[in-house]
Amino acid sequence: MNRLYTTLLLLLAAGCASMPEADHTFPANSMAVTAHPIATAAARDVLARGGNAADAAVAAGMMLAVVEPSMSHLGGRTQILVRSPDGTYQVATLDRALLDRMVMIYVETDYNCWARYAKEQQFDETVQQFLSAYPNLLAKPGAAIDMQMEPTERAWEMVSTLRRCCRFPADLEMEIYAGIVGQEAAVSFLRWSREQKERPVTARQVLDNWSDVEAQVKQQRDDLQAVTLNDLVTTLEVDAGLTLGQEQNLVAYIGELTRDLKFGLVKALLKNPQVAEILCKDDYDAVILETIECISREAS
Fold first, then answer.
1. Domain spans of the chain?
2. What digits encode the pLDDT tens for the residues 77-93?
3. Distance in angstroms (rounded) separating the CA atoms of residues 85 and 18
4. The pTM is what?
């Protein structure tokens, strides 16, 4: 937490350092009001150095995140009313001028696409595993979800970044995540994280350290096994280049699965040409052949 606040202070200091020294001569009709005197002083200082209202608002907001984190922080939101000096452009509710300047873009959310991106960017493992188990909590931007904030791809990316870089007290952690992905998603995520005393085996553990995790894999519940399966599919979509040892570990893992899970995983992996070529090797017939035959009969 201290690291986060120190970063905010450094950013604020860097911004102020690039401005001329304050002469405490304020523009006519200027005013700055916040919930904390130190934040108000920061805004007044920016105005005195020649900054405009937007500059002062940013300085005050960043300072509030430091001096009053329980009310203002990175996970919060705000409403801003801006009026240009000449008054020629004003926005009312659904003003035609505003609508003419708006372009609404709706992007269809694709969990598999997001999962590959998260793997490539090395998102926090807990975030990746949670959404692997609950992909329904990856919302479409603009979708009609009854939440104040939406758990979009970018929102989960911000949660991942915060988990990698910051440590929050338990009470503040809930408040911050709720301000980013919404109350429902934040509650589900934190509850799931705390309940996972036994973490799912990751794809990298299966491929690189099979002997170390074999016993754990055999004892995994079905929901945790599903996380491992999805992680393997995503990992191999990002990079299907396997050493001989990794090939053997993958096949050994498949061999430990129940019939239905084995069928689902092999069916998904056969869509990847490089992995399909590996699974069709004669050396692995004892584990793979029966499953491939079942898939062929289903397709015919």
1. 2-73, 111-195, 203-299
2. 566 666 666 665 554 44
3. 25
4. 0.43
